[in-house]
Design a protein that fits this description.
Elements: H1 3-26, H2 33-54, E1 57-66, E2 69-75, H3 78-82, H4 86-98, H5 100-105, E3 107-113, E4 117-118, H6 132-142, E5 150-154, H7 164-167, E6 175-179, E7 188-196, E8 199-201, E9 205-215, E10 220-228, E11 231-240, E12 246-254, E13 259-267, E14 280-288, E15 292-298, H8 303-313, E16 318-323, E17 336-340, H9 347-356, E18 360-364, H10 370-376, E19 380-382, E20 388-395, E21 415-418, E22 422-424, E23 428-435, E24 444-451, E25 454-460, H11 464-475, H12 479-493, E26 501-504, E27 508-510, E28 516-521, E29 534-540, E30 546-550, E31 552-554, E32 557-561, E33 568-576, E34 582-590, H13 603-612, E35 618-619, H14 623-632, E36 639-648, H15 654-672
Parallel strand pairs: 2-3, 2-5, 5-6, 6-35, 8-14, 15-16, 15-17, 17-18, 18-25, 27-34
Antiparallel strand pairs: 1-36, 3-4, 7-9, 9-12, 10-11, 10-13, 13-14, 19-22, 20-21, 20-23, 23-24, 24-25, 26-28, 28-32, 29-30, 29-33, 31-32, 33-34
Helix pairs in contact: 1-2, 2-15, 8-11, 8-12, 11-12
Amino acid sequence: MPTQDIVLIVASAIIALLIALFQYIYKVKNRTKKNGIFAFLRFLTVFTLLLLLINPTFRKKNYYTEKPKLVVAVDNSSSIKHLSQSQAVTGFVNQLTTSKELNDRFDIVYYSFADKLSDSLSVTFDQKQTNIANVLESLDQVYKNSNAPTILITDGNQTYGKDYSYRSIRYKQQIFPVIVGDTAKVIDTKIEQLNVNRYAYLKNKFPVEVILTYSGSTDITTKFLIKSNGNTVFSKPVTFSEDNNSTILNVTLPANTVGVVRYTSHLVPIENEKNSINNKKDFAVEVIDQKTNVLLISDITHPDLGAIKKSIESNERRSVTIQKPSAVNDIDSYQLIIMYQPNSRYSGVYEKLKKSRKNYFTITGSKTDWMFLNKIQNNYTQEIHQQTEYYLPRFNINYNTFLFDDIGFNAYPPLIGAFGEINITASNDILLYRNINDIVTDAPLLATIEKEGIREGVLFGEGIWRWRAQNYLDAKSFENFDEFFGKIVQYLSSKKQKSRLNTIAESFYYGNASIKIKAEYFTKNYEFDRRGNLQISVKNADTEASQNIPMLLKNNSYEADLSSLPSGNYEYTVSVIGENISKSGAFSILDYDVEQQLLSADVTKLQKVATNTNGKTYFVNQNSRIVDDLIKDQRYQPIQKSKEKVVSLIDWKYLLAIIIILLTIEWFMRKYNGLI
């Protein structure tokens, strides 16, 4: 207690004593023994009130013992069940939970994991992906300031993510891997990897690359097959030995049928092979009957032309032909015409466009003849000045013509366009606005127009090659920009009319992939409607089983996650509740579980993890050993800690009751003795 409070308490006692003596001793002429009692009661009352005014504080220390944490993370992936280790893992965990010595020594926290960490010990061993590196990163964030050794119960097989053995170097706790599964090297043949494009073109051939591996010491000969609809479309014998334990096959298959064609690749197992699941792998190819041919017309040489061509042709289903306007004879074989900086030499091209009623994309810039362009079409007009301006892009989050995401336009360099106002007279939707330095405007930089069934896109600026280069500087790839430009090409090359409900889905999915179906729902004015109540009805075409799933609003689309569906062929219908609007489609899920391709535990990596973190490896049958070692380990000792609690006297609620009782006793005694 501070010295100042002690002085004040002593002064309060003196003041209270003086008040009591003055009232009941000094002023009273006929003193009795009762006056002493009254004086004592008054002294206590006044002293207590003065103590409340001073409000001294008291400090109290509580001592307690804090046990070190023990983190137990259990692998919940399907490879544990596939390796017939689910009962062994469950038994190991049960022995930890019932060990009195271990629970007395540690505060044990249990987790399960597969592709991500879960703070629940409910293990079903049915998860299809494993990311141990992500698990270590999550645990490291939680226990970075604690003394928390980690028991990692796993087979060590990771299906995706960073190398967890290197990630463990930065892990701040000791890891004790408990190895689950067979550690012996078994004889096995398998399809290590199969590479194939998702799309092929009708009447063409598409390549398939297959990597086959063998683990064993004897020479063997087997056969590799590819089948479709029960028919063998490829067959080849393959030979392996201890030294020649892998081979790469390059197969070319014909694309004769439009649509999704499913194939099964099969490496015939050798005699007494333990695991034959990894000898089979399904894949599919969607055969398309034609490419999207784009005609890029330009009367000048410009870096934009190369950027546009590379961006469009990044999708193998599209090709670009560059011609001068004077060389354009036939446009019927093209699905989209791109007019780059039109001038009077384009008059013949515009005549052909009017007759063919084709969609087109206009890009203007410093070399554009706006007197000609204002005259040749009536969708938009530009004020004519002999000046140019630099225009910065600004993304319109309310763009509703098709789904689109901001790829970082605010950091992109400016485009060069004509100075002056632009007036778009036709029905349009602006994707990018243009800013001038720090001045925000509502003028369009990139817009889409639909009039009388013809679609046009207009970019009011040149220098788009800088955007593609900037995207590479930001993301180390051209993917985002190419996807941005590809969506514009896809929209303009399509002849589909606007619909209030559109669905976005792949024709097939692999079983280990995320399966999501999206939908766009618009009002009668074709504005995105966030108030819609959408649901998807999914029916298994093989078993006739069906289910209805509500679709959730995410950004500018509705979405349903169907990743839990088993492999098979499905039909779906997206409908708007309360509206007579629906869209149907179909997709397939190919059977593939990467966890079932694994034969044994990855002992090498788990031992490396233990070495990196000063831990130790154990096997799943060494439960007693790991418990004894942890209890004897001097690094994990309980720590005695103290907690100081500061309490103010005014917080002591009984003090008010004491004051009331003292005053009550004094009043009744005075009343009883006729002093009141």
